[in-house]
Amino acid sequence: MKPEMKKALAAGAVVVLLLSIAVYYVTRPAPPAPPKYSPTLDLPEDYIIVAEQPDSMEDMLAIATISSLAVKDGCHPFFIATEEGLDNHQMDTLEKLSCMNLPVILFANNETLAETLKGQGLDLRDEFVLPLCPKAPSLFKGFEGLLYVESFRDALWSAPVAAVEGKVMYPYQATFSSQEEAWAALKARGVPFEYLVVANPYDLNAKTLEENTPSYNEYDSLFHIDALSALAPTVAAYHRAYVLTDWTPSTEEIGYLDTELNSRAIGLYLKLKEVSGTFGVPHYIALFGSAAAVPQFQLPDTTSSDPNSREGDSLVNSDVVYGFLDEDPYTMDASVGRFINLNLQGLSNQITRTFLYERFSPTIVAEYSTGHKTVEWRRHGTSLSGFQITYQRRQATPARFFCRDLDDEGMTYDYYGPSGVGHNLLPDPVEPTTETDITKSLQASGFVAYRGHGSETGSLYMISYVTTSDPDGVLRSEEARELLLPPQVAFFVACMNAKIHGKGFGSHKEDLNISRAFALNYLYGGAVAVGGATEVSYSNVGQDSDALVGEATGNHQWDLNDAWYAFFWDGVLNHEEEYGSVGDALRWAENRYINNPNHDFRLTPLEQNPDDPNWESLYSAHWKEISMFVIYGDPAFRPYISSPGPNDYDPWHNGDQDY
């Protein structure tokens, strides 16, 4: 064939191809139109939402879309139920919220759950019994339209945008293809970069974590709690938060630690620094879920060369590192907290109590051993001095000063402390309670402050436990989960009460049984915020002498654990305008400890120097103290204070240079 003929045929083929393409585009069927918002159900003015426990990623997406209902026009009680219905703690919450007569909207595929809830006395109408599926929430009227999501992952980013726009999320081709696109949408709508939620969208169970999380360590699955991130969209929607789900593990050296072991934490930390460089440092960072889903830093425990005098895995677990985001290693910039509970049912109750704190009944009828007593729980605290810490190590002042500060705030208290030696240590009217069962006071208190011994599975070790083996002289995890606490802030300045990952101390190298973790059981009992140490902590032996002198000089020489006690409660009770949220109180305590004017050194969690001859004898204990204290709960939560401002009594400072 001649070359001219070949060229002609090729040109003809091109023309035919182009004509075919043109005909296809002219005659092809139009793509289906996006779904339209077509509601059929009237939304009650107020209501309770109940959703079935998720067991698939589709269920996780469905619970995410329910967030649009949960935060519509404020916030509504939103509970996760098992096949047995709501538990005693959720029912107690409804009773204290005076919500039992509100209509219930149920999302469930379990056909018997509706009857179970009716049997519990809830107002459940047939038209409000809906399947647990991502389309169901869009059946309700009152929204401005649909915001499309394809997976639970992008629903996490989209939930706050839907809340801002007044829309309900719906399964279709996703509106946002990345978390960055969702952030841009929030920024364009004027939402400040104030609150950042960090969640792992694959925390449904250990298997989904292992299959979908880069650089995942299967050992972490021992400490996982299933599906807690299902409620992250609700928290993000309520706070109009930016949501971070995607980051790349890294072995970049950022401090004195094992980079392989910490690759997920390092990657998240670097992503937080990157995002802060773009948007500014967020006020609050809320880590969502277990330490398997969103890792804690695991820092080397170099406090002792003796393996029996350091943590069993030689590691110190830390959340506070995530708050050090600018170039100053001696200042924690963001307030960090972690949403976590014994299970998803408990977390739904905790979040409901957090967001509806102001709606709770102002009084509780407390059942003391001497009879019933009506208590204004928001204005009542329990202060506890544990055995040995008070009696032998001379640290009675923190718990007694706390009582005096509550009194200065116009509040009442129950004090558990020395009734013999040490009782007349201070010239004040603080009298120990005659109540022998500590749980009676705990269940009547909006604030609980403890200074004493602790473990990963127990706390509140009182003298009666040692002298008479009194079972009421200690609180075990199994007992904590049975409490019916008010929405309480509790700070346990003791060893290991906030441990959620790793092994015991010294020769006790057993892995933590996550179902017995004290902080998680206490949160399940009804508290909304729990603070404490993840590891073994340190006493400032003889603190009372310095604290008493400080009443005259203003420099109380607070140090080690007593400094944490002093600085945290100072923020909550006396400087609540600047540091009254639980996250801010912890951050302020961290920064005050690092910059303690009574020290001639400064330390930071990411840096250690075991080669320093004074490291083990002096610096290491302080390094550990600034690395291991945490807040579990919403870092932005602010408890009630009856008398705002500094008032007349503030014993929590180390002189004029202690900011």
Kindly describe this structure.
There is one protein chain. By secondary structure, this protein is α/β, with parallel strands linked by helices. Among the domains are: 42-148, Rossmann fold; 366-633, Rossmann fold, CATH 3.40.50. Helices cover 32% and strands 15% of the residues. The protein has 20 helices and 22 strands. Strands 16-15-17-20-21-22 form a 6-stranded mixed sheet, with helices on both faces. The protein has a 4-stranded parallel sheet with strand order 2-1-3-4, with helices on both faces. Strands 8-7-9-12 form a 4-stranded parallel sheet. A hairpin with a 2-residue loop joins β13 (364-368) and β14. α2 runs parallel beside α5 (152-165). 54% of the residues are buried. Mean pLDDT is 92; it is low at 13-18 and 20-26.
* Total DSSP helices: 20
Secondary structure tally: strands: 22
Q: Which blocks of ≥5 consecutive residues have pLDDT under 50?
A: 13-18, 20-26
| Beginning-to-end CA distance, first to last residue | 93 Å
The pLDDT mean sits at: 92
Q: Which percent range fits the helix content? A: 25-40%
Assigned CATH architecture of the domain at 366-633:
3-Layer(aba) Sandwich
- Gross morphology is globular
Derived from helix and strand composition plus strand pairing, the structural class reads alpha/beta
| DSSP strand content | 15-25%
Strand order of the largest sheet: 16-15-17-20-21-22
Radius of gyration: 27 Å
Largest sheet: 6 strands, mixed
CATH class of the domain at 366-633: Alpha Beta
The CATH topology of the domain at 366-633: Rossmann fold
